[in-house]
Amino acid sequence: MEEQVIKEGKTTAIVAYMTMLGALIAITMNLEPKNAFARFHVRQAFGIHLVFLGVALFLSVWFFKYALLALYVFYFIMWLYGFLGAIGGKTHTMPVIGVYFQKWFTFIQ
After folding, report:
1. Residue 108: which of 17, 31, 7, 11 has the closest Cα?
2. Which CB contacts under 8 angstroms, 24+ apart, belong to 20-26?
3. Pick from 28, 84, 78: which is nearest to 55 by CA?
4. Which of 38, 48, 88, 95 sits between 20 and 30 A of 104, alpha carbons compared?
5. What's this model's pTM, rounded to 2 decimal places?
6. pLDDT tens digits for 44-81?
7. Cα–Cα distance measured from residue 98 to residue 31, given in angstroms and rounded to the nearest whole number
């Protein structure tokens, strides 16, 4: 990806990792003009936030503190991986699940 595209989309990409609300704001920020770097990171961030919220809701019904702790560790590691990638101008998908986020969230343009 060219340097100018990364530079223009970096702010939107970083905002996407700031909670689910940040991801929703980043989606609207990337509506016009569209930026490929920002789109990549918005999809990744939206996916990890959605997975976290979905699994947390599931675990809230059957409270198991070690599973909840594992979820928070997983979420933090994935968040940090994506956030540092956005800051560094990298487009590496999240391990295992990142490829699916790019396929499933094609509505994010």
Report:
1. 31
2. 20/46, 20/49, 20/50, 20/53, 23/49
3. 78
4. 88
5. 0.88
6. 999 999 999 999 988 877 777 788 889 999 999 999 99
7. 22
